[in-house]
Design a protein that fits this description.
alpha/beta; metal ion binding; 317 residues; Aldolase_TIM; binds magnesium ion; binds 3-hydroxy-3-methylglutaryl-coenzyme A; eight-stranded parallel barrel; TIM Barrel; 13 helices
């Protein structure tokens, strides 16, 4: 399969001034992409997906979720998944850990990075993790401490940084407040998440600027769901603002079980096509991701949500 026409090759040679030369993609498909699937995806399929993504060259893969299996049954086999994947040297494997029970499971499963996940919206916090923002931060405190003591990387994720499915608008101050608290808990990286994909490029620039006063932008990640088709534009705006870490999901899989109507994250294949076209290095093999996207779409019987993935598969056929 070939990625290119001559115009794309020309674009690759030119770095657009002001944009980063290298970007880290956090592949969240195995977690964010699969968590809302109604039919149980087998552990074998999850393991094969993660193995394919590891071979593709991602340095960070969100592989599991150690949350209550009553709340998110699809993620109940996280320990088995982690025990069976082929770990690639140089790749960090992450999992969601909402409380100490989750952290203990993550430690037993030898995760490299744990993710405390809160929200900038009270209503979403209640629906997603059954507590207020303040209560969540109190719960995260021992999780963060134990993660650091165990030498793990700690990431914080802030849902509804661009809007909430239950309360609508979310104030900048609310986002900055949670970023500040997660910074104080020792987060190495913080994700500003557009859970329902309502953000637009100007809002990304504004949020990035506001947040940069309390946390270094080079450790901020953009986590954009593509519900309104804005995610690639939002990534471009993020690049212009100085963000160089983005989350995406192979084949555009996913949605949040606690955000009605939200679609998946932006498709990794589309993001790679954009970044490589801009001459930005990712270290990820687009063709290998396209093949992984084809594999998982067939395995779960869903249309492949990656535009670039579909186009490259059609070219190769
Ligand atoms: P709760 O019911 O308030 O907690 O849930 P609890 O402490 O009362 O525990 C209830 C039961 O769950 C107990 O079991 C616990 O042992 C068990 P029981 O005694 O009834 O048999 N339990 C657990 N089991 C396994 N692992 C655990 C765990 N904790 C409790 N870690 C809780 C609170 C946070 C646990 C629950 O609300 C929950 O699991 N929520 C998960 C929600 C979730 O995973 N949402 C999707 C991921 S977030 C997302 O997608 C957004 C993101 O992508 C960014 C964006 O796009 O916005 C990150
Ligand atoms: Mg998400």
């Amino acid at each position: 399969m070939t990625e290119g026409r001559s115009d794309l090759a020309a674009a690759r040679r030119s770095n657009v001034p002001g944009l980063p030369g290298r970007v880290k993609i956090v592949e969240v498909g195995p977690r964010d992409g699969l968590q809302a699937e109604k039919a149980q995806v087998s552990t074998d399929v999850k393991v094969e997906l993660i193995d394919r993504l590891s071979v593709a060259g991602f340095t960070n893969i969100e592989a599991a979720s150690f949350v209550s299996p009553k709340w998110v049954p699809q993620m109940a086999d996280g320990a088995d998944v982690m025990a069976r994947i082929q770990r690639r040297a140089g790749t960090f494997y992450s999992a969601l850990t909402p409380n100490m029970k989750g952290l203990e499971a993550a430690l037993a499963a030898r995760l490299d990075e744990v993710v405390i996940f809160g929200a900038a919206s009270e209503a979403f916090s209640q629906r997603n993790i059954n507590c207020s923002i303040a209560e969540s931060l109190a719960r995260f405190t021992p999780v963060a401490k134990a993660a650091k003591e165990a030498g793990l990387r700690l990431r914080g994720s802030i849902s509804c940084s661009f809007g909430c499915p239950y309360q609508g608008d979310v104030a900048f101050d609310a986002v900055v407040d949670v970023v500040t608290r997660m910074r104080d808990l020792g987060c190495d990286e913080i994700d500003i998440a557009d859970t329902i994909g309502v953000g637009t490029a100007n809002r990304v620039l504004e949020v990035a600027e506001t947040v940069s006063h309390v946390f270094p932008l080079e450790r901020i990640a953009g986590h954009f769901h593509d519900t309104y088709g804005q995610a690639l534009a939002n990534i471009y705006a993020g690049l212009q603002a100085g963000i160089a870490i983005f989350h995406s999901s192979v084949a555009g899989l996913g949605g949040c079980p606690y955000a009605k109507g939200a679609t998946g994250n932006v498709a990794t294949e589309d993001v790679l096509y954009l970044l490589h076209g801009l001459g930005i290095e990712t270290g990820v093999d687009l063709n290998a991701v396209v093949a992984a996207g084809d594999f998982i779409s067939r395995a779960i019987g869903k249309p492949n949500g990656a535009r670039a993935g579909r186009a490259l598969l059609a070219n190769a056929a």
